[in-house]
Specification:
two-stranded antiparallel ribbon; 9 helices; eight-stranded mixed beta sheet; about 300 residues
Length: about 300
């Protein structure tokens, strides 16, 4: 588990209380989560929802920083990933809808139970901002902040990525899934280790111009339209994966919600590269975290 490093409470040098948790989803599946508790009563609870193939430890410094600002933060791994993987990856049964409907819902319930009636905020990184429609208890969330979240449709990816995405979806994934029974992304240095069902579904989504809505049909279109939680999108001009079109495409599907799009360039943060993953790096504590995010969690 990642440590808190320099991100300790301004009022207490001992840092937040970090606790490993086992959370049971509605179908009985045990999920690994971590809470980062501030000293004293929290002002709100914050759920950090991971990107595809990214383990919860990646968000540890960010969660510690949140706790140091008086917020109760939670990170977790989807079933079949990270510390939530039980047994061999090829045996993991999971898809993207299940990650939202069961896994995210379980963590939302945990955050709501521990918030003491205070607001619960959702910070979704990439895929973590795409799963909102599948979470039945999303009404417990006061606001969702999506970070580098786009549709994933490969023809609208950043230009350099399109030929690589074509190669991934039309050759690499169709070959590796039957061969390994999963997607061994760490070995291939692509995406990360992903259960077969999740990778198959993600491939279908990324190959369709309307992404999840187009691949899954009208019921999912209705789920996107049914989201009522206010959404703020933080995207980055130098994102190497998500184009501006990707970002706009998925957020226009939240037709029943108030959506605010904020696009940040490296020049806005002193010229430092941000990219698809950089937002959660500690170098942005005094810029992106403090200036762009903290006001949204008030």
């Amino acid at each position: 588990m990642g440590g808190c490093g320099q991100y300790r409470s301004p009022m207490n040098d001992s840092g937040p209380a970090v606790e490993r948790l086992e959370v049971v989803a509605a179908d009985g599946t045990s999920l690994a989560a971590t809470s980062y508790a501030p000293h004293g009563e929290p002002a709100a609870a914050v759920l950090v929802v991971p990107a595809m193939g990214v383990r919860q430890d990646y968000y540890a410094d960010f969660a510690c920083w949140l706790a140091g600002r008086g917020l109760l933060a939670f990170t977790f791994d989807y079933r079949g990933t990270g510390r939530s993987l039980r047994g061999p990856l090829r045996a993991a049964k999971a898809d993207l809808v299940t990650w939202g409907r069961l896994d995210c819902a379980a963590i939302v319930a945990l955050a709501a139970a521990r918030s003491g009636g205070r607001p619960v905020f959702w910070i979704g990184h990439s895929l973590g901002g795409q799963l909102l429609p599948f979470v039945e208890n999303l009404g417990c969330v006061s606001r969702a902040i999506t970070v580098a979240t786009g549709s994933g449709y490969w023809r609208e990816n950043a230009p350099w990525l399109r030929p690589r995405a074509f190669w991934l979806w039309h050759l690499v994934v169709p070959v590796t899934l039957p061969l390994f029974g999963c997607f061994p992304g760490r070995r291939l240095r692509k995406v990360g280790d992903v259960p077969r069902g999740a990778m198959e579904q993600w491939r279908r989504w990324c190959l369709h111009p309307e992404y999840a809505v187009g691949a899954e049909g009208e019921p999912v279109r209705d789920l996107f339209a049914g989201v009522r939680v206010p959404i703020v999108s933080l995207s980055f001009a130098d994102d190497e994966y998500m184009s501006a079109r990707n970002i706009e495409a998925i957020h226009t599907q939240y037709t029943g919600s108030s959506v605010t799009l904020r696009r940040v360039s490296p020049a806005d943060v002193g010229g430092a590269r941000i990219g698809h993953f950089g937002f959660f790096h500690p170098r942005f504590a005094t810029t992106l975290w403090q200036r762009e995010l903290l006001s949204l969690l008030g």
